[in-house]
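Quick question: who can interpret this fold?

. . .
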Amino acid sequence: MVATPAIAVRDLRKYYGSKAAVDGLTLQVPRGCFFGFLGPNGAGKTTTIRMLMGVNTPTSGEIEVLGLRMPEQGVAIKRQIGLVPEDTLLFDHLTAQEYMEFTGRIYGLPAAMTRERMRELLALFEMDAQGRKLIGEYSKGMRKRVAMAAALLHRPQLFLMDEPFEGVDAVGARLMKDILLDLVGKGATIFLTSHVLEVVERLCDRVAIISHGRLVVDDTMANLRGGTESLEEIFVRVVGGARSTENLEWL
């Protein structure tokens, strides 16, 4: 029996008034894949992730996540995904420990299991010494670590990650990358957006690029590396981002 894709969207559209944020997106993400979802600012990446989460309702089109239909089976889907949003939606007046205990209750984990996993995850992310500090006192990089640790708590099959390395220092980013690669090696699926194309090129098995809400590239990194262009060069070419300063004489 062939496994269903981790994510399958068909002719997905999201309009705000007359403007299409996502315009006819059709995409499949295989299970056990490290998938890079790229595009310039305003291309529709975050809107797509919000529709995969069930936060935004599509104008039209179909979404399946882990073989389940969104929004009809949205609650079952949310129990099986981990989320690291671009803006870490944490509670500043809780400590990291309190936030993770709250997350465990949301997912229905037994309290003893939550506490054990929380200790292990905070240690894994080198946050065990910071676990009793209020989240509001954390740097952006520390907030990202807590968000990722909380996303792991219920052992999800699929991770949706919107700019997870933004604001994270080199040591923290390396730690997070190693953890994500280990998860993929154990069969999890990572759906990642990032503006740092060198990171995507190193980590991802497959890459999709959208521009103005439409898919313009969908291929394996192996095929993309087989040409003469880097991922950055491909990205700039397909989204039309190259600009010249020769007309600005004062520069």
